[in-house]
Design brief:
- The structure is a homodimer.
- Chain A is elongated and about 50 Å long.
- Residues about 1-10 of chain A have low confidence and may be disordered.
- Chain A has one helix spanning about 5-10, and strands spanning about 15-20, 25-30, 45-50, 55-60, 65-70, 70-75, 95, 105-110, 115-120, 140-145, 150-155, 160-165, 170-175, 190-195.
- Chain A has one helix and 14 strands.
- By secondary structure, chain A is mainly beta.
- At the A-B interface, strand 6 and strand 11 of A face strand 6 and strand 11 of B.
C-alpha cells in the first residue's frame, strides 16, 4: 500500500489551474516544468496532484521558497504554503521528487556545519525535534542517506519548507544556505519523510 | 527518547507573550487555561512550549479552530495556524493533551458517518491519505483507539486542524461536526500522531 504500482513506475501527474478552486485555464503536467510562463500560464492558484510527490518553487528554474506537493487537492495557495508571513503567492516552477521512499528513508542532522558536532539519525517523522531530544531550534547541516525529506522552520510542519532529496547534491547539505536558494535561517524544528 | 521522564509525569509547561517574538506581557502555564482574559491577557502573539503537547483554541472554553502546539518556539501566529485563509489571529484558550503517545497510537477512519462503510486503520503518520490508498478527500467518522492524533484538511498537514484524543468523547467522533466545534467541512487529507 505504500507504493502503488503506477507511482512506483514514476508516472507522475499534476494538474494546475490559473484560478482558485480548480477554475480558469488548466494544464496537465507529467514531468518537470522549469517555468509555467513557457506553458502560457501567468500564475497558478490551485493544483490537484494525481500522482506524486512533487516540489513546487516560488520562482522559475527551481529557485526560491519550496512547497511539498503530495497526492491530493490544493484548492488555494495556503493549502501548500506554510509561510503566510512572507506571502508571495508565487509558484512558478515544479518537478517530481523521484527518490521519495516512505518506507526506506534515513537522514542525519548535525549541530555544526560540514557534518560536524553532535548528530541525530532519523528514520521516522518528527513533528517536534526538541521533544525527541534535539537540544536546539537550529540544524547546521543535513545528510540524506536515503529517500526524500521535508524539513520545516517551526514545530508541527509549519513555516519555511526545505525539500531534501538523496538524488540532489548527493544528499549533502553542508550548510543551511544550501537547504534552499532562499533559506534565511537555520531554524529547523520539525522534519518528516516524503511519501511516494 | 520518545517519552522524556518529565513529560511522562505530565509536567506540562507553556509560556505565552502578548507580542510577536516573545515580547511584551508574559505568563507561564502549567495546566489548562479556559480563557486568557482571566489571566489578564488581551491576546497571545507568541508561544514557547517547554513541555507539551498542548492544543490551543480560537475562542474561550476550548471552542473554535484548534491548533496543535508541540515542544518548540512559535514566534508568531502563522507558526501554529495552518489556515491563513480564515485569519482570525485568535488563540484564547488552551490545554495539555494528556493522552498523546507517539509510539502507541491507533486510529480508524470511516467512509460513512457513525463508523460505517469502508474503513482504514492507521498507526503511522500519513501526509497524503490518498497516496496511501484512501479513495476520497473526505472522512465521515473517526475512532481513536489509542493516543492522540491531529487530522488536517489538506495534504502535507495544512489547513484546518482537528485534534482527536482517546480521552475525549471516548475517542469517538461519529460525524465531522464533532471533529471540532468549528468544523465546516469533512475534508481530511492528512493525519498524524501527536508527539508527547
Amino acid at each position: 500500500m505504500t507504493s502503488p504500482p503506477m507511482e512506483a513506475l514514476g508516472q507522475f501527474k499534476l494538474t494546475a489551474w490559473e484560478e482558485e478552486n480548480f477554475q480558469g485555464k488548466r494544464s496537465e503536467f507529467l514531468q518537470e516544468c522549469p517555468s509555467i510562463m513557457d506553458r502560457g500560464f501567468r500564475k497558478i492558484r490551485s493544483i490537484k496532484v494525481e500522482n506524486g510527490p512533487w516540489v513546487g518553487f516560488e520562482y522559475p528554474e527551481y529557485q526560491g521558497q519550496q512547497f511539498i506537493l503530495e497526492k491530493g487537492d490544493y484548492p488555494r495557495w495556503e493549502a501548500w504554503s506554510g509561510n503566510s508571513g512572507y506571502r508571495t503567492e508565487h509558484l512558478l516552477s515544479f518537478r517530481p521528487i523521484k527518490c521519495a521512499n516512505h518506507s526506506d528513508s534515513k537522514v542525519t542532522l548535525y549541530e555544526v556545519e560540514n557534518f560536524q558536532g553532535r548528530k541525530f539519525e532519523l528514520s521516522d517523522d518528527f513533528p517536534s525535534l526538541q521533544a525527541m531530544g534535539w537540544g536546539s531550534k537550529e540544524v547546521a547541516s543535513i545528510k540524506v542517506n536515503s529517500g526524500a525529506w521535508v524539513a520545516y522552520q517551526y514545530p508541527g510542519y509549519r513555516g519555511y519548507q526545505y525539500v531534501l532529496e538523496r538524488d540532489r547534491q548527493n544528499g549533502e547539505f553542508p550548510k543551511y544556505t544550501e537547504f534552499s536558494t532562499q533559506a534565511h535561517t537555520n531554524q529547523v524544528q520539525s522534519i518528516r519523510r516524503i511519501q511516494h
